[in-house]
Design brief:
Blueprint (H helix, E strand, L loop, with lengths): L1 E5 L3 H12 L3 E6 L2 H7 L6 E5 L5 H7 L6 E4 L4 H14 L4 E6 L16 E4 L4 H9 L2 H4 L10 E6 L20 E8 L2 E3 L12 E6 L4 H8 L1
């Protein structure tokens, strides 16, 4: 499968790593020269392209004409909508997934803008890959299904009621533990006393809770 990802932030980079590991052909685009330079050599098998993915010429140069999936994962909703529309209408990409950064804009992310899968910012990476590609073999890289255990990621949003609360004060679903908190790009030990901040990404392990139940605990 040929995959084109716009946005080399944490989400876009994770998607590139997982899909590349599953032997897909992956191209990652970002407009930030420094960010692209930092990723050089860190993403084996991923083609890095510097430029504005909202520009049709850049998308075509990056391989949109032969892409099976385009993922618009930038931090700007307007850019993600433009990329989705270009991918679907101009380049006839079969499948388009776009990240929704602001929940108030979620109603825009549909077929009118060329979006097949709208992905809220707090949606786990697992769900994005599974829904956008249908590649259960790829999801298996992150899901411990044989042991009946799921690895679930959730993000603390600025509107979350968990902001400022200690991790230990959050009532988790039964059979769920926090494996790590990723803050400013760095994993940290999930100390129960640590206060949660907007932007924190939590990786949880559970043998019984659903993703919805885990997200609800932190929102």
């Amino acid at each position: 499968m040929n995959v084109l990802i716009a946005g080399a932030g944490r989400l876009g980079t994770q998607i590139a790593q997982v899909l590349s590991a599953a032997r897909n052909k992956v191209t990652l685009i970002d407009s930030d020269d420094d960010r692209v330079a930092e990723l050089q050599g860190r993403l084996p098998g991923v083609l890095l392209v510097t430029g504005d993915a909202c520009e049709p010429a850049l998308l075509e140069h990056a391989g949109a004409l032969t892409a099976d999936l385009v993922v618009a994962a930038t931090g700007d909703d307007e850019d993600n909508l433009v990329i989705g529309l270009l991918a679907k209408r101009r380049f006839s990409v079969p499948r388009v997934a776009a990240r929704v950064n602001d929940a108030d804009n979620a109603w825009l992310f549909d077929a009118r803008w060329g979006v097949d899968v709208a992905v809220p910012a707090a949606t786990p990476l697992i769900s994005l890959i599974e829904e956008a590609t249908g590649a259960t073999d790829t999801v298996a890289l992150l899901r411990l299904s044989k042991a009946g255990i799921d690895v679930i990621e959730t993000v603390i949003t600025p509107r979350s009621g968990a902001v400022g609360r200690a991790l230990g004060d959050i009532r988790l679903p039964e059979g769920t533990v926090v494996a790590t908190i990723v803050r400013d790009g760095q994993p940290t030990v999930p100390d129960p006393a640590v206060p949660l901040r907007a932007g924190d990404e939590l990786l949880l392990v559970s043998h019984s809770a659903t993703e919805h139940e885990i997200h609800a605990a932190f929102q």
